[in-house]
Amino acid sequence: MSANGATRSTIRAVDVFGQHVVQQLQSFRSRFSGGASIPPLFVAMQGPQGSGKTTVTRALIQYLNSSGLNVGILSTDDLYHTHGNLHRVAQENPTNPLLSGRGQPGTHDTELGADLLDRIYTINSKTPQKVKLPVFDKSLFNGEGDRVPVSDASPALHSRLDVFILEGWSMGFSTISAAEVERKRIASPPDSPLSRYDVEALHQINENLKAYRQWYEHFSVFLQIQPTDLNNVYIWRTQQEHAMKAANGGRGMSDDGVKAFVDRYMPGYYLFLDTIRENEQWKGRSKTITIDLDRTCVAAEDW
């Protein structure tokens, strides 16, 4: 039985999240005076790779559209550095394998993201207004990926925008103390993701995460997809890569490449997942669903 009384067979992520966002939008709008330009409600969504974030988000957009709302969406993946800059980050950090490819804090263009989010938050202050969005193509460079130059063909958001969703595997992660990094590493078993890396590498990722705090300024609602077992990520991400390669003619990573790719993400989950609920910006206005290996919702929780 879930926190909201629904049984396993009746929980649908889109319904749980959709009803929550509509309710929070009403509350958000009530804070503004009648003549004020109301910005879009900023909603963060976090879930591990392959958990179905993108599928759930698309269904959520359809749900909200059917309620007459205009919704914008962006993935934090689209804010990765360009392929050239990802290589630069790797070359500048030769002793830190966590930065050998995209994924961990330090591999995103945080300034681009902050500027973009500021412009989206004020999109309703002028009419009409358009904000073009970046796109990161993961299939390029044998799966290393590259950010596609913004052009007239780029996706864009238009005013009036009611809801904006930013989704990503590390959305909401916050830095912790150096002592806490070391405590978590020492407390982890010998075969854990944290034990695979030098503590200096983990400290660097933690330090890099400070730059992401500016991304969270406008967010007041948090949606989270939580697995019953974090190791499900390896299975889901392999399935995801197979689907992409089947659709694009075989461009992408091998299974071994996927495993190595996911390995670099795991320390982030072990270090920072629990920091999401500590953020006062969205505490009391947020929702988590738990899914099993088949991506079936088994619980829903307010927090």
TrEMBL record:
Belongs to the GLYK kinase family. PANTHER family: URIDINE KINASE. This is P-loop containing nucleoside triphosphate hydrolase protein. Keywords: ATP-binding, Cytoplasm, Kinase, Nucleotide-binding, Nucleus, Transferase. The keyword Ribosomal protein does not apply. The keyword Methyltransferase does not apply. Transmembrane segments: none annotated. One of its GO terms (molecular function) is kinase activity. One of its GO terms (cellular component) is nucleus. Gene3D superfamilies: P-loop containing nucleotide triphosphate hydrolases (3.40.50.300). It comes from Pseudozyma antarctica. It is found in: Cytoplasm; Nucleus.
